[in-house]
């Protein structure tokens, strides 16, 4: 048994100078929490002259890790650029080395030894060293100067080998940039398994009960079947290869999923003859030999050849929610694709369905891993007895379905923190350390296609869950601190160096930015000036910023502000502004003086357009405030609430089900005006607050 020196450091928030340098240091707070900690006295200090030093024998293996650490330290330390060297460390250096002798740490464990002069990260594997660098970065993030690490020794190792997240990109497209950011975000929390669900379809009842009209998408470029690739968003083969390479450099495994034989409308729209006339066109016809020919070709396109598209060790073949009456055909299909994928040197994952699809047709077990999502579809005890490896993915605990009204909109984090870890699969709990429970994974399913949910809305749901579930999958249960204490300290840990997908901004007393007439300046919470940047075809005058339409804008120091916020401004539009005239813009959204042809104030993001029932009068000053949170977006005029755009229920003819349309906005701040469609008029007294419904 490993001897544990864990001290939780419940009172430890931001490290401040030398306030605790004469006492034995408590464990620094990181997510996931350290398994073992032995504190000493004092602190290691990163300096401008510090270097990342590689042990000569490990230099080649750790070069990529050192480069990632070097890049990540730049935004965190506000510009300290550490050189990378090979040799012996000196005072202020970070020393990286492989230590194959410490086999007790396993494949991903590491040791951080922080002295006053040198901070060393050692591990049996390159991935272990990489995880040690994530711990270093998190501790530096919480330090007020981003340069101190408490002296002591951390021995850290994961409780579970698979620590995952499933993202449904089939029913909602997520940009390649989002996926790349998520690789880094997951890595920051030592989450090592990114399962990307590449195809799916909407529900027929929301599309006139017509399969031909129902949304379906397959997100990869295809040369075999060019018509298969979704028109509204996809990834080229090289982009997907590059994403997997990036993930590997950050310690994350990409697990691509092609979901068959249900959830398969994208394939049957391409080849209608392989759709099931008995069970619906989202089911493949498993009695038709052409079905196997087509789906074989799909898998082979991404697995075959000297430069395969799927470069990782595992591929997911779906196999979920097929009609029970066709259990024997389903089992034969599942076995066929397990063996086909394995023929290309990959290991296979499947969704648990063999209790639902009981039968006599054998399905391969050895080396196959099953996502255990619903015990009625795959009984965990029975699957364990058969010999399947299992990833705990229980829907009643871990499924996020945004704004759908079932499963979770936001996960129940206190319950997860207090009661769940991967050995809990639905209502079945296996013994701690069961070797067939490889780990866990939580999921986002975008069932309600077209419901207004954005990438940023999804991230708002995932971020707090990632923090809690990384804790439970790496650290396991922690009786030394309550969920409330964990959550309070977790608020000081972000998304990784330089990342701010949530648009969180700090401000003095909540005021983030302020621009007054004739003054090109604002102050942040540290009292630093935050001037407007580039001003193009616009002018700061005594009465405000004059914006002249078309390409006319002034850049602010921040791109956007996320939930919760209030943006106040006073505007005097010229007469005759064109439709879609823009007040504020960023890469994710625009706020418009005139939304399309309505003539009314509104906003647009990710292809969705929303309109307030209010027209801003021309040639007179009007004080406006727009406030947003994860529930919706509100408009105030001259201090009075005019409209609250929150979830809006829409119905469908002949269908009892309804859909909630989300009307949220992460407020765009990169430009006052726009690079193409700016409004004409004057704007002044801009105030940005990081609290909702803040009115003066």
What does this structure look like?
InterPro entries: Beta_hexosaminidase_sua/sub, ConA-like_dom_sf, GH, GH20_Enzymes, Glyco_hydro_20_cat, Hex-like_dom2, HEX_bac_N. Residues 1-21 form the signal peptide. With 696 residues, this protein is an alpha/beta fold. The chain folds into three domains: 36-156, Chitobiase, domain 2 (2-Layer Sandwich); 162-490, TIM Barrel, CATH 3.20.20; 511-689, Jelly Rolls (Sandwich). The chain is 21% helix and 30% strand. The strands form eight sheets. Strands 23, 24, 25, 26, 28, 29, 30, 31, 32, 33, 34, 35 and 39 form a 13-stranded antiparallel sheet that branches. The protein has an eight-stranded parallel beta barrel with strand order 8-9-12-15-16-17-18-22, surrounded by four helices. Strands 1-7-5-6-4-2-3 form a seven-stranded mixed sheet, with helices on one face. It starts with 35 loop residues before the first strand and ends in a 7-residue tail after the last strand. The model is unreliable at 1-21 and 524-528 (pLDDT under 50).
């Amino acid at each position: 048994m490993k001897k544990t020196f864990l001290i939780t450091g419940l009172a430890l928030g931001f490290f401040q100078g030398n306030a605790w340098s004469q006492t034995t240091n408590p464990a620094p707070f990181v997510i996931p929490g350290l398994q073992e900690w032995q504190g000493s006295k004092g602190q290691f200090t990163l300096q401008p002259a510090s270097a990342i030093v590689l042990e000569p024998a490990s230099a080649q293996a750790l070069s990529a890790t050192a480069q990632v650490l070097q890049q990540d330290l730049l935004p965190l330390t506000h510009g300290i650029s550490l050189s990378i060297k090979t040799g012996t460390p000196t005072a202020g250096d970070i020393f990286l080395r492989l230590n194959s002798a410490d086999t007790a740490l396993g494949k991903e464990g590491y040791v951080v030894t922080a002295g006053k002069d040198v901070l060393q990260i050692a591990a049996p594997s390159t991935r272990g060293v990489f995880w040690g660098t994530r711990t270093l970065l998190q501790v530096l993030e919480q330090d007020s100067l981003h340069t101190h690490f408490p002296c002591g020794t951390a021995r850290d190792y994961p409780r579970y080998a698979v620590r995952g997240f499933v993202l449904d990109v089939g029913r909602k497209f997520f940009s390649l940039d989002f996926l790349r950011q998520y690789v880094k975000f997951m890595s920051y929390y030592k989450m090592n398994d990114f399962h990307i669900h590449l195809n799916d379809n909407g529900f027929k009842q929301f599309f006139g009960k017509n399969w031909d009209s129902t949304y379906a998408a397959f997100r990869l470029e295809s040369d075999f079947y060019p018509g298969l690739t979704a028109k509204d968003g996809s990834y080229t083969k090289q982009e997907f290869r590059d994403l997997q390479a990036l993930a590997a450099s950050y310690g994350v495994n990409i697990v691509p999923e092609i979901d068959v034989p249900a959830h398969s409308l994208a394939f049957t729209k391409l080849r209608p003859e392989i759709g099931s006339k008995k069970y619906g066109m989202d089911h493949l016809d498993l009695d038709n030999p052409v079905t196997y020919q087509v789906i074989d070709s799909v898998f082979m396109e991404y697995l075959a050849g000297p430069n395969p598209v799927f470069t990782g060790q595992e591929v997911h073949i779906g196999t979920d929610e097929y009609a029970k009456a066709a259990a024997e055909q389903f089992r034969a299909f599942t076995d066929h694709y397990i063996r086909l994928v394995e023929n290309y040197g990959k290991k296979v994952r499947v969704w648990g369905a063999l209790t639902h699809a009981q039968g006599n047709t054998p399905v391969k077990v050895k080396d196959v891993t099953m996502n255990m999502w619903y015990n009625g579809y795959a009984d965990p005890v029975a699957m364990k007895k058969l010999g399947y490896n299992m990833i705990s993915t229980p829907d009643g605990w871990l499924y996020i379905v945004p704004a759908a009204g079932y499963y979770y909109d936001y996960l129940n984090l206190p319950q997860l923190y207090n009661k769940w870890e991967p050995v809990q699969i639905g209502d079945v709990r296996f013994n701690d350390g069961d070797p067939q429970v490889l780990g866990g994974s939580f999921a986002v399913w975008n069932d309600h296609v077209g419901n207004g949910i954005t990438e940023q809305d999804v991230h708002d749901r995932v971020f707090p869950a990632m923090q809690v579930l990384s804790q439970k999958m790496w650290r396991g249960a922690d009786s030394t601190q309550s969920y409330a204490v964990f959550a309070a300290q977790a608020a000081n840990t972000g998304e990784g160096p330089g990342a701010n997908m949530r648009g969180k901004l700090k401000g003095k007393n909540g005021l983030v930015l302020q621009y007054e007439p004739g003054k090109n300046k604002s102050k942040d919470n540290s009292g630093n000036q935050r001037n407007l940047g580039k001003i193009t075809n616009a002018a700061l005058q005594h009465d405000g910023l004059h914006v002249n339409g078309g390409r006319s804008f002034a850049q602010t120091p921040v791109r956007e502000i996320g939930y919760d916020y209030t943006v106040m401004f006073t505007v005097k539009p010229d007469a005759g502004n064109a439709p879609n005239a823009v007040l504020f813009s960023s890469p994710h959204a625009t706020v418009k003086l005139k939304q399309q042809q309505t003539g009314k104030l509104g906003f647009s993001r990710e292809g969705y357009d929303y309109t307030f029932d209010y027209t801003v009068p021309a040639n007179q000053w009007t004080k406006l405030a727009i406030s947003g949170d994860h529930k919706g977006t509100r408009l105030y005029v001259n201090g009075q609430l005019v409209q609250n755009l929150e979830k809006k229920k829409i119905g469908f003819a002949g269908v009892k089900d309804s859909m909630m349309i989300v009307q949220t906005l992460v407020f765009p701040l990169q430009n006052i005006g726009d690079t193409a469609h700016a409004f004409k008029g004057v704007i002044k007294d801009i105030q940005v607050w990081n609290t909702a419904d803040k009115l003066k």
